[in-house]
């Protein structure tokens, strides 16, 4: 995804501690470039899906199309939440093995 340097809100969504720390590091870098960034933690997609539409719209405003989800596993379940204009950073192959910290160090776009 290409982002122009303008005032845009980017939602970075993550579901666990490792991903949230990466999201926070990414948000700091993007904020330093003048972008408005929010980090949203979604520990349970099922609970979020069962919440009211009003609540989901408050957490993930429909007007925000620049969304990035970070998942230290398969990315497929996140596309529902990032939408057509969003991106998902995940691991969709079986070539990696190791501890969570080792895998993140190997593939992470930023390090906390």
UniProtKB/TrEMBL annotation:
Q: Where are the transmembrane segments?
A: none
- Taxonomy, superkingdom: Bacteria
Provide GO CC annotations from the record: cytosol
Q: Which InterPro entries does the entry link to?
A: Transketo_C/PFOR_II, Transketolase-like_C_2, Transketolase_fam
Identify the residues that the record assigns to the Transketolase-like C-terminal domain, covering every copy: 18-105
**What GO MF terms are annotated?**
metal ion binding; transketolase activity
What UniProt keywords apply to this chain's record, in alphabetical order?
Magnesium, Metal-binding
**Metal-binding: present as a keyword of the record?**
yes
- Which GO biological process entries does UniProt record here? pentose-phosphate shunt
Q: Which PANTHER family match?
A: TRANSKETOLASE, TRANSKETOLASE 1-RELATED
User: What's the protein name?
Assistant: Transketolase-like C-terminal domain-containing protein
Q: Which organism is it from?
A: Cryobacterium ruanii
- Organism lineage: Bacteria, Bacillati, Actinomycetota, Actinomycetes, Micrococcales
């Amino acid at each position: 995804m290409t982002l122009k340097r303008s005032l845009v809100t980017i939602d970075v969504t993550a579901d666990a501690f490792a991903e949230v720390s990466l999201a926070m590091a990414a948000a700091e870098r993007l904020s330093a470039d003048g972008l408005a960034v929010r980090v949203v933690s979604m520990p349970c997609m099922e609970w979020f899906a069962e919440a009211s539409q009003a609540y989901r719209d408050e957490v993930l405003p429909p007007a925000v199309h620049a969304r990035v989800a970070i998942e230290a596993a398969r990315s497929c379940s996140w596309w529902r939440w990032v939408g057509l204009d969003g991106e998902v950073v995940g691991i969709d192959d079986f070539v990696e093995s190791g501890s969570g910290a080792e895998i993140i160090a190997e593939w992470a776009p930023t390090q906390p």
